[in-house]
Amino acid sequence: MPTRSRLHVPVTPARPGEISDFSWLRLSPAGAIARPEPGARSGDITFLADGLVRVLDDAGEAIGPWHPHLEVQDLQIGLRHMLLTRVFDDRMQRIQRSGKISFYMRSLGEEAVSVAQAQALRPADMLFPSYRNQGLQIARGRPLVDLMCQVLSNTRDMCKGRQLPVLYHWREGNIFSISGNLATQFPQAVGWAMAAAIRGQDAVAASWIGEGASAEADFHHALLFASVYRAPVILNVVNNQWAISTFQGFAGGEQRTFAARGPGYGIAGLRVDGNDFLAVHAVTQWAAERARTGHGPTLIEHVTYRGAAHSTSDDPARYRPRDDYQHWPLGDPVERLKQHLIRLGEWSEERHAGLSAELEDHVAASWKEATRFGTLTDPPRLDPHLMFEDVFREMPPHLRRQDAELRAERGQG
Amino acid sequence: MPTRSRLHVPVTPARPGEISDFSWLRLSPAGAIARPEPGARSGDITFLADGLVRVLDDAGEAIGPWHPHLEVQDLQIGLRHMLLTRVFDDRMQRIQRSGKISFYMRSLGEEAVSVAQAQALRPADMLFPSYRNQGLQIARGRPLVDLMCQVLSNTRDMCKGRQLPVLYHWREGNIFSISGNLATQFPQAVGWAMAAAIRGQDAVAASWIGEGASAEADFHHALLFASVYRAPVILNVVNNQWAISTFQGFAGGEQRTFAARGPGYGIAGLRVDGNDFLAVHAVTQWAAERARTGHGPTLIEHVTYRGAAHSTSDDPARYRPRDDYQHWPLGDPVERLKQHLIRLGEWSEERHAGLSAELEDHVAASWKEATRFGTLTDPPRLDPHLMFEDVFREMPPHLRRQDAELRAERGQG
Amino acid sequence: MAQMNLIHALNSAMDVMLGRDPAVVVLGEDIGYFGGVFRVTEGLQRKYGEHRVLDTPIAEGGIIAAAIGMGVNGLRPVAEIQFADYIYPGYDQIVSELARLRYRSAGEFFAPVTVRTPCGGGIRGGQTHSQSPEAIFAHVSGLKVVMPSNPYDAKGLLIASIEDDDPVIFFEPKRLYNGPFDGNPNQAAVPWSAHPLGEVPEGHYTVPIGKAAIARAGSDLTIVTYGTMVHVCEAAARGLGLDAEIVDVRTMVPLDTDTICASVARTGRCVIAHEATRFAGFGAELAATIQEQCFWNLEAPILRVAGWDTPYPHAFEWEYFPGQARVVRALRTVMEAG
Amino acid sequence: MAQMNLIHALNSAMDVMLGRDPAVVVLGEDIGYFGGVFRVTEGLQRKYGEHRVLDTPIAEGGIIAAAIGMGVNGLRPVAEIQFADYIYPGYDQIVSELARLRYRSAGEFFAPVTVRTPCGGGIRGGQTHSQSPEAIFAHVSGLKVVMPSNPYDAKGLLIASIEDDDPVIFFEPKRLYNGPFDGNPNQAAVPWSAHPLGEVPEGHYTVPIGKAAIARAGSDLTIVTYGTMVHVCEAAARGLGLDAEIVDVRTMVPLDTDTICASVARTGRCVIAHEATRFAGFGAELAATIQEQCFWNLEAPILRVAGWDTPYPHAFEWEYFPGQARVVRALRTVMEAG
Ligand SMILES: Cc1ncc(C[n+]2csc(CCOP(=O)(O)OP(=O)(O)O)c2C)c(N)n1
Ligand SMILES: Cc1ncc(C[n+]2csc(CCOP(=O)(O)OP(=O)(O)O)c2C)c(N)n1
Ligand SMILES: [Mg+2]
Ligand SMILES: [Mg+2]
C-alpha cells in the first residue's frame, strides 16, 4: 500500500504509430436496456446512465424496448439528411483547401445525433447547438445556400460577416446563434426552457455540447438550474471521444460516464449509441415527452466518434492513429441506417448511389448559387460599415463617429 | 397528463409563523451504513452518497462499522474544542452588538464538522476553509488572541487590517486564507493536492464549502479536476440547510443529496451526520486514508443545521420559524458528544459546567489581551500605509506615489 | 410624488415594470421571499408570485446565463448580483454572450437583460463588498453601463434600462441607499427626504440612458463624476467656496461626451472623480476624451481623484475612500495651475 | 545566439525554466502531448514528462484555480489560456483570488502564476479569436500585465514573469508569432530572421518587468504603443517620413511612466496605439497619465488609434484592424495641430 499519492494522468488509449484500442469502451448489446416510463423518477432510472441504449444490432435489425417504430419514410428522410450533411461537409472541406473560405468544421461520424434529434423534436422546440450540429439546420430544412453564404461571409451571410464560418443561426427555424466560446449556450437553453415553463409554452429546449466542453462551468450551471426548476430541456453531451488533441479522459470520462453527471444532480441521465439513428431518435422522443409532461430535464450522452479533424486548422495524425476511426466499434451512422433500410427492403445500394449523386449535384448547384453573392476573394462584398450596426439596437454617437472615421480612412468621407 | 410544463420552484418546508417540518429529511439509523475499504472503487460504493453515516445513536451509544474507537482523551479534547468554538462565537457576537467589531459569523450547531475533521487529519494536511470553519483554527491550537486581533483589525491583525472579520489565515498552521468570494477555495485545494501528488508529498488537502455555495462553478471545477487527476483531497459540503435566506433546495438539494454529485463525477461521495462527532471523525479518517493511498478524492456532505443567523447582519426570523433549530432532528453536536462521554463514564454535568466556566474565562482573558492591541474605536491603530504593501511583493512606483499622496492628504507629507 | 430613498426608488421601478409588462421577471440570490440583502426587492415576490420574482442558486454565471435564455424567449429579466464584487463569475456570460448576441446574430437574437448590482464602499464591507468595477464593463462593446446618484434618477434610469432592448449593467452605489453621503463618516447621516431628488413620482417615468446631468451649474471648473462621488465632490467644492460645475455622468456607456466637453470647454479646468481604483479606471477614458476634445480650452492638466490602486481594505476604509480631503487637494491644484 | 521566431522564443523560455527550476510546471488545454494549438509548448512534455507539462480539462476557471493551488504549494505554474478570448471563465479566479491572495493574507500566501495567452487579430479568427483584453487586467490591483512585441523581449519577459513571485498576465500578440507584421496583409510575410530582435540567446536571461523600451528613437513626436502595433506604427511613421520616437510599453503594469513621459515631454506630441477597442481601453490610461504629467509640454491633443468599439468582425478584419492608414491619419493630425 503506497503512503504517497501520485498524480494520475488520464490514459489516451492509442497515439500515432500505436494500434487503436477501444477495449475500454463499455457497450451494451442492442435491445438490452429497459425503457422506463418517461415520467419515471430520476432516482429510479440511474441504470440508464451507465448502460448504452441501442436499437440497431450488428445485422441492422431494430430490436428491444427502445425500438421507435418509425415510418419508413421518416427513416428514408433521416438517411437523406445525414447523407446531405456529409456531402455538404465534404464539399466545404475541399473548398476551404482551395482558399475560398477561411475555416470549416465537419461532423463526420456524428450525423445521427443532429438529424435524428431534430426529427424527434417539434418545430417549435428551440435548439441551442454547438458548432458541430449542422445536421440540425439540414434536418429542419435550411436551404444550403444560406449556410454556404454564412461560410463565405458574403453579401447574403445571415451573420453580416461578423462570425467565423459554421457559427450559424436561424431565427425562423428556432435555431439559436452559435458562440465561439464553448459551453455558453448550455445554461442559456435552460433559461429559455424556464421561460417556456413560466410562460406556459408547449415547447422544450435542447442544447448540445462536446464532451470536452462539458468541463466548462456552464455545463454545471445548466445541470443545476435545470434540476432546481425542473426545466423542460434536453441537454446533450456529444461524446465524440476527442476535444481537439485531448482524449475524453481529460474531461472526466475515464472514471464515469458523462450521462452519470445527470443523476448526480437529480436529473435523468441516459447514455445512447450516438451512431444508431433509431436509438438517438427514441431517447430524444422519450426525453421530450418527459420534459413536456412536467417531469423535467434529461441529460443524454451520445457515444460517438469524431471521424474527421477537429477543424480545417487541425491535423489529427499528430495525436491519434491515422486509422483510428476505422476501428471505432459503433460504426458509421449513415451506413448503419442504410443497412437497416436495406434489410427492411426499403432501400438498396442503387438507390443509395442515386441519392448520393443527387445530393452531390444539389450541393454543387447550391455552391454555385451561393458564390454569386460573393466569396472571400471575389465580389460582391458586404459593406464594411455593417460592422458598426447591431452592437446596440440603435447606433450610439461614438459608433457613428467611428463609422465616419472609417469612411474617411477608406476615402469615402 | 399535463401537456405543458410549469416552472417548479423548490419548496421551503416552513416559513415564519409556520410549524417546523423536517419530515422530508432522509435519515439512516446509527450503525446502518456499511463501511467499505477506503480503497474501494467509487462505482461500487455509491450507496454512501444516499445513506447517512451515523455512529452515535439517540441514547449516546457509539455503534456500527464506522465507530472510530477513539481514545477517551481525544473525545474530551474534541468536546473542549467544540465548546471553545461556541463560547468564542457567542462572545464575539455580543461584542459585535457593542460596536467594537464590525461583523461576525457564528458556527452554532456545526462545530463537530470543523473540530472532528481537524482532529482526524494530520498537521501537514492543508486546509482550505470557508468562513464558518473557525473550529479548524481552534482544533489546530490557534491562540484565540490571534483570531480576536483579526476580528478587531487591530495592530496584531494577521491580515494587517485588510480583511473582514473572520476571514483568517494561518500559514504555520497550514490553514489557507479565506476569501470573501464563495467557493473559490474549493478548486484551489484540488490544485494544492495535485501539487502534493506531483511533488510526492505525504499530505492531503481538505476544503469546505456551504451547500449554497456548491452552486458556484468552482464546485464543479473542483470535482472535475479532482476526478481527472485523482487528487488527494477531501471536499466537504457543509449542508446546514440555509444559504442566508435560501433553503438548500435552491442549491439542488431537493432532487438528490449533495454527496451524490461525487459519484456523478466518478469520485467517492459520502453523506454523514454532521452533528455526530464520531461519524464525522470516522468518515474523514476514511477519506484521508483513501487519498493518502492513491485512491483519490472524496466528497463528503455533512448534514447539519445553521443554528444561528447567517451573520451579524442577518435576522433569520424574517425567513424561517424562530424555533426551527429546536426541531432539527440531528440535535446539537456538543450535547451529543457530551452525552456519549457521560455514558462512557468519562464526563459529567459538573465537569461540563466547569469546562464551560474555564473556557468563558479563557475567552474573556483573551479578549482583554487582544484589545490591548487596539479596537475599531480605540487605539493603537494599524498604520494606514500598510494599505499599499503586499499588493505586489515589492511596491511599484505608482503605489509609492499614492502612498506619498495619502501622507500629504493626512498632513504627514 | 413621494419621498423615497434609493432603495424605495429602485423597488418602485421594478414594481412599476412588473405591473406594466408581464414579460418582466426579477431573479437573483435572496431576492424573492426575503426581499434582498439590501431589501431592494422587498414585497415583490409576494405581489407578483414565485414565477415572476425568482430566488436562484448562488451561481452568478448561471443567473446571467439563465437570464439570457429567458430574454431570448421573450422575457425581460432583471437579474440582481448581490454585490458587484461577485459579478466576476458571470463575467464570461456578460462579455461573451449578453454583450455580443445581437451583433453576432445580426440582430435576429437579443436578450434585454438588466443586471442590477450594488457597488462602492463606505459600509465597512472590506475588499469583497466595496468594489466599483464599472470600467471593465464600459470597455466591452455591446453593454450599456449606468450608475445613478439619487433616487429620482435611479428609478427613471432603472425603468429605462428594463425597457431598453440592449443589455444594461446597472450599478447602485450602496452607500447612497439611505442618504446622500458626502464622504464624511463622522457626520450624522442625512436622509434622502432632505434632498430634492428624493422626491420621486410613484408611477412610470424614465430618465434617458446616454444623457449626463448637470448636478450643479458653475463656472470655476468642471468636476466630472458619478455615483457617491457626486455628493462628495459637491461638498468639497462647497467647502472651498468654488463655483464648480458638477457633471453627473449617469451613464458611462453610451457616454454623453457633448455635455461633458461643453462644460470643460467653458470652464477650462477639470477634475474627474470616482471611487474605483485609479489605474485604467473609467476616469482614464474621461480624461483621455476630454483632453482630446477640449485641448485648446484647457488651462490646467485634468486630474483624477480615485480609489488607490490596492484592494479595498477593511480597516482603512476612510483612508482608502476618495473623500473630501482628496477631492479638495485636486481642486486646489487644478485651480492654482497655469 | 540563435534565430528564433516568437513561438520558438517562448518555447525556449519555458524550456529553460523547466530545466532550471523543478518547481516550474506548465498546464493548459492541448499543451502537453500536442504541443499547443500554436505549438508554443511543442516538445516540452516529451522532455519533462506528464507531471511537469499537463494537459487539462477545457475549463479556464479550473485551470487558473488549480494553478493557484499549485502555486500555494510551492510550484511555479505557467498556465496557457488557448486564446485570450477564452480567459473570461477564469476571470473571477484571476481577479478575486490570484490578484488578491498576497494582499489579503498579508504576504503569508501567494501564488507565482504566469498566465500566457495569445491575443490580437489579424489571423481571420473572427470575434472569438482576436480580442485584446489587456485593459480589464490592467485595472485590477495585484496583477502584472505584460505584452512583448518581438522574440528577444518575449523570451526575456517570459522568464522574468515565471521567476516573478507576483502573478503575471502575459499576452502574446499571435499575429507576431511568425514575423513582425506591419499591418499590411497583402504584403509578403516577413520572417523574424530578418529582424534584429529575432536574435535570441539560447540560455537564461531576463528582460525586466516594468521597463518600457524605446523601439525607435526620434524627435518629431512620440508614439506610445505595444504588441503588434509597434511594427504597424513604425511602418506608418516611416511611410510619412516622420522621425517618430516609438515607445514599446512592454509592461502595462507596472507602467514605466518615466520613460513614456520623458519622451513626450521632449517631443511635445503623442499618438497612442493599440489593437484593443478604444473606449476605456488601455490607451485611455496612457493618455490620461501623459496629459497630466506632460501638460505644459504638449503642443497638440494626444490621439488614440485603436480597434473600433465593436466586436472583431470576421469579414471586415482589415477595416477593423488599426492599420497603417488609421495610424497615418492620427500622426498627420497630431503633427499638423497647434
Ligand atoms: C471557452 C473556450 N475555451 C477553449 C476554446 C477552444 N476550443 C475550441 S473547440 C475545443 C475543443 C472542444 O471539444 P469538444 O467539446 O469535445 O467538442 P468537439 O470539437 O469534439 O465537437 C477547444 C478547446 C473555446 N472555443 N472556448
Ligand atoms: C461569489 C459570491 N456570491 C455571493 C456571495 C454572498 N454570500 C455570502 S454568504 C452567502 C450564502 C452562502 O451559503 P452557504 O454556502 O450555504 O454557506 P453557509 O453560510 O450556510 O455556511 C452568500 C450568498 C458571496 N460572498 N460570494
Ligand atoms: Mg469532443
Ligand atoms: Mg448553508
Q: Can you characterise this structure?
A:
- The complex is a heterotetramer, with 2 copies of chain A (413 residues) and 2 copies of chain C (338 residues).
- The mean pLDDT of chain A is 97.
- In chain A, helix 2 packs antiparallel against helix 10, helix 2 packs across helix 11 and helix 6 packs parallel to helix 7.
- In chain A, 60% of the residues are buried.
- Chain A has 12 helices and 7 strands.
- By secondary structure, chain A is an alpha/beta fold.
- In chain A, the strands form 2 sheets. Chain A has a 5-stranded parallel beta sheet with strand order 1-2-3-7-6, sandwiched between helices. A two-stranded antiparallel ribbon of chain A has the order 4-5.
- Helix content of chain A is 36%, strand content 8%.
- Chain C is α/β, with parallel strands linked by helices and 338 residues long.
- Chain C folds into 2 domains: 199 residues, Rossmann fold (3-Layer(aba) Sandwich); 121 residues, 3-Layer(aba) Sandwich (Rossmann fold), CATH 3.40.50.920.
- Chain C contains 12 helices and 14 strands.
- In chain C, the strands form 3 sheets. A 7-stranded mixed beta sheet of chain C has the order 3-2-4-5-7-6-12, sandwiched between helices. Chain C has a 5-stranded mixed beta sheet with strand order 9-11-10-13-14, with helices on both faces.
- Chain C is globular.
- Chain C starts with a strand and ends with a helix.
- Chains in contact: A-B, A-C, A-D, B-C, B-D, C-D.
- Chains A and B meet through helix 6, helix 7 and helix 8 of A and helix 5, helix 6 and helix 7 of B.
- Bound molecules: thiamine diphosphate (2 copies) and magnesium ion (MG) (2 copies).
- The site of one magnesium ion (MG) has 7 residues of chain B, from strand 4.
